[in-house]
Amino acid sequence: MSNNDFQAISSRIDGKRDDLIALTQELIRIPTLNPPGENYRDICEYLSKRLENKGFSCTLVRAFEAPGDSDRYPRWNMVARREGASSGDCVHFNSHTDVVEVGHGWTRDPFGGALEDGRIYGRGACDMKGGLASSIIAAEAFIEAHPDYRGAIEISGTADEESGGYGGVAYLAEQGYFDPKRVQHVIIPEPLGHDRICLGHRGGWWAEIETKGEIAHGCMPFLGDCAVRHMAAVLDTFEEKLYPAMAARWTDMPVIPDGARQSTMNINSIHGGQPEQPADYTGLPAHCVPDSCRIVIDRRFLIEEGIDATQTEIVGLLDDLKTNRPGFDYELREINRVIPSMTAKDAPVVETVSAAIRDVLGQDPDYVASPGSYDQKHIDRIGTLKNCIAYGPGDLEMAHKPDEFIEVGDMLDSAKVMARSLQKLLLS
Ligand SMILES: [Zn+2]
């Protein structure tokens, strides 16, 4: 592998600019909205048709019985693999094919893929059909230039990342698709920017907390026990004890933005007493003391805290209330958990992509970690594969917004970095 190889692959990718644009537009025009999970089969067939023409073997995998999977909305995934001329490592590019709802405020057709001033517009342009298209162009350019590469290249298009990834990467990982014996390097082209490598993400713990009371007539509340007042005590104790404790903790992970380097918790919802009536209901509320109040918490924890300490801290505060506050009782139900993931900075895929960024952009990469999470969690925990990063074109802050777009120049740069990484990993 020489510097000439690098110049040649860069100009080859520049020559595919129109193909890259058309591919991104066509992907945007398949409206893979999640929820409910529409057109997954269509996008998998589109991808496999294209990649089979380039010598890949493609497998469509339905995540039977995963959350959301039904005959109406089947969770289809596509895995493409192309063997090289001799044995070696396998490099896998994983992109989710689903996009979030459109929302209000668009001035362009969200599924039109309009090209204007070097930007392609549409829902999923940035998150992450532009990244998927860049990885396909990178792999195709590499294969054309080096048909005798060693190892293997895989490209997957997976479902449901926006709703947890259980019908997508988690399912494939359970089926062995991310076994370290099969795949050695994973790049997820999420929109982190062409000069940034995302090493991992924080953890998350979602739970519903319910306080209990006793129903009675509202004119004699002393004959009942108000679950909403008990919940107020929960919120007080969070304000006085939990939030200050969390604010004092900072992670060494390079989480962006800065505010997310702390431990955080959102109170997602609160419901107490009588259910809300439809907007056209004209009656008055009945006079009742509420016997139940529920909140949903969204606790994002640091890798240094861990899931056990995170849970114990909250349960401890609730148990203190149970001991000290007359009549207090509660139930806690876990909704979901995500374990933090952090790939080492000296892992082979990190060092390779870092060097490729230096070659292509002439600058050192920034290393970041995600404030939320993405499919790396499943590759790490279920697949037990630690050599995984997110690297791809686009601005994360554009994700899920109206008039979402991706810059063509950004996609070309990222495709060059990905192709350069393939040269480093698959050429002897
Ligand atoms: Zn995404």
Explain what this protein looks like in three dimensions.
Its EC number is 3.5.1.18. InterPro entries: ArgE/DapE, Bact_exopeptidase_dim_dom, Peptidase_M20, Peptidase_M20_dimer, Peptidase_M20A. The chain is an alpha+beta fold and about 425 residues long. The chain folds into 2 domains: about 5-200 and about 340-425, Aminopeptidase (3-Layer(aba) Sandwich); about 205-340, 2-Layer Sandwich (Alpha-Beta Plaits). It contains 10 helices and 16 strands. Strands 1, 2, 3, 6, 7, 8, 13, 14 and 15 form a 9-stranded mixed beta sheet that branches. A 4-stranded antiparallel beta sheet has the order 10-11-9-12, with helices on one face. The protein has a 3-stranded antiparallel beta sheet with strand order 4-5-16. A hairpin with a 2-residue loop joins strand 4 and strand 5. The radius of gyration is 25 Å and the shape is elongated. The structure holds zinc ion. Zinc ion binds near residues 96, 127, 128, 161 and 190.
Write the CATH architecture name of the largest domain: 3-Layer(aba) Sandwich
Low-confidence stretches: none
CATH superfamily of the largest domain: Zn peptidases
State the secondary-structure class: alpha+beta
The radius of gyration is 25 Å
Counted up, domains total 2
Largest sheet: 9 strands, mixed
What binds here, in terms of ligands, is: zinc ion
For the secondary structure, the number of strands is 16
From N to C, what is the helix and strand string?
A: HHHEEEEEHEHEEEHEEHEEHEHEEH
CATH topology category name of the largest domain: Aminopeptidase
Proportion in helices: 25-40%
The N- and C-terminal alpha carbons lie at a distance of 7 Å
Q: In percent terms, what proportion of residues is strand?
A: 15-25%
According to CATH, what is the class of the largest domain?
Alpha Beta
